[in-house]
Amino acid sequence: MNTKTQKHKNTRSYLKIGVLLFGLSTLNFSCQKEDVSINETSNNSVSTNEIISYNDFINAKSVNKNLLQEAIGDLNSLKSSTHRSLENNTFVVDTTLIGNVQHESGYVSYTFRVVSDPEANLLQNIMLSQYADGTEMNYLIEYKTDVPVGEILNGTTNQHLTEYRVTKLIDPQLSYASRGLSGSWDCVDVVSITSGECSFTAGSDKKEYADHPGCYEPDQMTPRTFITITVTEECEFVGGGIGADTGSDTGGFTPIGGGPGGETGNPAAGDDDTPCEENGLTTTIDDGNGGCITGTGVVVELPERNNCIDLKEFTDIPLVKTRLNTLKNDGGNFEKGMRIDKNPNTGEYVPTPILSNTGAYREINLYPSGYTEVIVHTHPPTDVFSMFSGPDILEMGKVASLIEGVSASTVASVSITHILVTDGMTFALRFDDIASVTKLKNIYEDPEQKKKFNKRLLKLYKKDKNSLTGLGETDIYKQQRHLFAFLQEYNVNLSLYQADQSGGFITGWRKINKETLAKENCN
Amino acid sequence: MKKILFIVIAITVITSCKAQQTTIIPLGSSLDYEFNQNTYLKDVNNDLDKFVGTWKFENQSSEITFMLKKDVQYQASSGDEYEDMLVGEYQYIDAGVEKVNTLSSFNNPDILGYAHNISGSIFTHTLPVYCIDNSDISEIKIQLTIDDPIGNYVEGVLILRYKNDNGIEKLEVCIYDSSKLAATPDLHISIPDGYYEFVKQN
Q1: Regarding predicted confidence, which is higher, A275 or B190?
Q2: d(CA B135, nearest CA chain A) in Å
Q3: Inter-chain contacts counted by CB atoms under 8 A, chains A and B
Q4: What mean pLDDT comes out for the span A392-398?
Q5: Test mutation, A334, A358, A365, chain B, max B CBs within 10 A
Q6: pTM of the predicted model as reported, rounded to 2 decimal places
Q7: How far apart are CA A483 and CA A281, in angstroms?
C-alpha cells in the first residue's frame, strides 16, 4: 500500500515536472525568434506606397503582367467586377483597392485583399510582385487576428494582428494543398507602420497575448487605412512554407509583402548565402549577429470610404442629376423613384428612367436587383412623415439580400445607397460597415422582425403627437433624431447625408451629425 | 445571526424585485422608452377593446370580413418589449370568388402577435390625405398592418376608426397597399385601396 502511494506520488511529481518542462519549452520555442530588432528603415527604399484602383493597376506600365495575368485570369475582365476569383474560384480577391509598393530599384508589388469569412480570425492577402530583374513571384500572406477579420475591415475595432505567415505561390494554378500552407506562423510583434494614417510600434511594453506568448498587442491604429507592415527577421530563419528557397539561403525568409526576402535574384530559386547588404530591392540590414532583417508588406483594408464623394459620383451623372431635379419638383401624391444599377459587364452606373406605379398604388416598388447600387424615391408632400420609413430602410436590406443572391455582383453591398427626395430636400442613407448590412438584411428576411422594425420606427415618429389630443407637431429634425436613436437601438450603423443644391440641382453632399444634426462637410 | 440572515434575504429580494421592474408605457405615449423586456407598452385606457370583434363590409361586388382580438402583453421575441396589440385575420370575396381567407388562423394558439395577418398597435390621429377622414383629430385611430398570403412582403396598411352610429358599431377603414418590398412590382394586396365601412357582427 505504502509502495503504491509512493509510486502514485512519484508519478504525480513526474507529471508536474513534465508539464513544467513542456511549458518552458513551448515558451522558449515561441520566443526563439524574438531577438530581432525593429526595422524602422525599410521604407527607405520604398519610393511609392499607396492604394490604387484597379484601373491604375491595369494601366501601370512598370510591371510585366504576364504572371499576374496567369494568376488572376483575364485582367481586363476584372475591370467590371469588384470581386474576382483566383485560381478556379479558390480565392476571391477584392479588386476595388489594391496596395501598391514600388521601390526605387524597380521592385513593384500589388497586394489584393482576399475576400474571406468576416467571422474568421484570418486576414489574407495575395501579393503579386515583380523584381528589378524582371522575375515575378506571387505570395499568399496570412495574418491571424484576435478579433473577427470583419470587425477590422469594418473599422469597428482596432487592428489586432497576432501572427503571420507567407507562402510563395509558384504555380498560378496551385491547388490548396500545394500552396504550402504548412508554413510556420510567426508573431507579428515586430512591426512598424510606414505608411497610411496608422501609427503603432509594437514591442515588449505592449500587452502580451495570452494565446500567443511572445506576441504583443500593437497600439491602437486608425482603422480603414492601408498599412505597411515591416517585419524584421533573422536570416537564419527559413520560413514561409513550400516555395521558400531550396538552397542554403540564410535570407530565405519569404518576404512579408513587398520585400523580396533579402534576395536580389529569383526568389524562387535556391542560392548561396548572401551577405546582408542594401541590395537595392528592399532594405536588408545586418543585424550585427550575422543575420539580416528585411521585409515589407501591405495589408489592404477598406480605406475610410468617403460617402459624400461617392454620393456626388452618383448625382453628378447627368441623367441622375436631371432626374433628381424632376423628382424634387414632382408634386404628385404618389411616390416615384428610380434606381441606379451597375452594368454587370462594364461596371458603369446605369440610371433607370423615373419609375412610377401603374394603377392607384401610392408606394413605389423600385424592383431592385442584385446589380442595384442606388435606390431613389420620393415622399410626396402629403405624406405624414418626411424621413425614411421602416420599409424604406429595409429596402436596403432587400438590395443586400439580392446582391448576395448574385454570384458575382458588381456592387459591394456596403455601397448600397438609398436617396430620398422629400420636402424639397434630398437625403441619402449609406452603410458605415458590412456588419450593418448583414443586420439589416437579416431583419428584412425575417417577416416578424421586419414588422416589428417598421412598427417601432413608426411609433417613434408618432411620439411627437399627443396621444389624447393628437396635437403637437412633428418635423423632419425630430424625425431625424428618432431615426438615429432607432438605428442605434438596433446597432445598425447607417449615416444620413443631405444634398447641397443650387438652382434645383445637387452640387454636393454633407453628412448629418447624429448628435447635433448639423450638416458637416465630408467632401 | 438570524437578524443578519433576514437583512441579507430582504436586500436580495428587494434587489431582485427592482431588477425585474417593468416600466409601463401607455400605448401612443410620447414618453421615451427602450426596446427591451423591461418595457411594457400597455393599452392603459383599453382603447383597443372597442375594435375587438367580427366586422363585415359588404357592397354589390365584394365582401370583407375582419376578425380582430387583443393580444395582451405580447412579446415578439425574448428580450423584446411587451406590448398590447390588435391582431386578426380576414376574408376577402370579390365577385363571388374568395380571394383571401385566413380566418382559420384566428384561433390558432400557435399564431401570436405579428404572425397574424393583421397586427399592430399604432395610435394615430391624422390620416394620409388619400384616406377619407371623418374623425376629429383628438380621436384615436389604430394603424395596423395587413398581409396578403399571395406573397412575401405583400402588405398594406389599415387605419381603423371606431364609431357608434345610433347603437350600430362601425369601423371606418382606410386600406392602402404598401408592398414596396414585394418581389415584383405587380404584387399588391388583394383588397383594393380605398375607404370601407364595416359593421360589427353579433
Answers
A1: B190
A2: 12
A3: 110
A4: 96
A5: A365
A6: 0.61
A7: 54
pLDDT of residue A376: 96
Contact (CB<8Å) B137/A459: no
Residue matched to cell numbers 405579428: B114
Q: Which site among A455, A473, A479 would you substitute to test the B interface, given the most B Cβ atoms closer than 10 Å to its Cβ? A: A455
Round to whole Å and give the CA distance between A24 and A19. 9
Cα separations (Å) of A366 from A398, A402, A438, B178, B199? 11, 13, 21, 12, 37
What proportions of chain A, in percent to the nearest 5, are helix, strand and coil?
25, 25, 50
Say whether residue B33 is in contact with chain A using an 8 A CB cutoff: no
- At A3 the three-state DSSP class reads helix
Residues A233, A236, A242, A243: is their CA dihedral positive or negative?
positive
Percent of chain B with pLDDT over 90: 75
**Does the beta carbon of B35 lie under 8 angstroms from any beta carbon of chain A?**
yes
Which pLDDT band, with edges at 50, 70 and 90, does B202 fall under? Answer: confident
**pLDDT recorded at residue A499:** 95
**Is A440 part of the contact surface with chain B (CB cutoff 8 Å)?**
no
ipTM over 0.90: no
Q: Which residue has the cell 438605428?
A: A487
Residue in B123, B147, B187 closest to A467 by CB: B123
Residue to substitute from A393, A467, A488, interface B, most B β-carbons within 10 A? A467
Which residues does residue A114 pair with via DSSP β-bridges, in sequence order?
A93
**Contact yes or no for A282/A106 (Cβ under 8 A):** no
Segment A290-310 shows an average pLDDT of: 50
Q: Is the pLDDT of residue B93 over 80?
A: yes
Q: Per-residue pLDDT averaged across A502-517, rounded?
A: 92
User: Which candidate from A364, A456, A459 shows the least CB-CB separation from B180?
Assistant: A364
Evaluate if residue B14 carries a pLDDT over 70: no
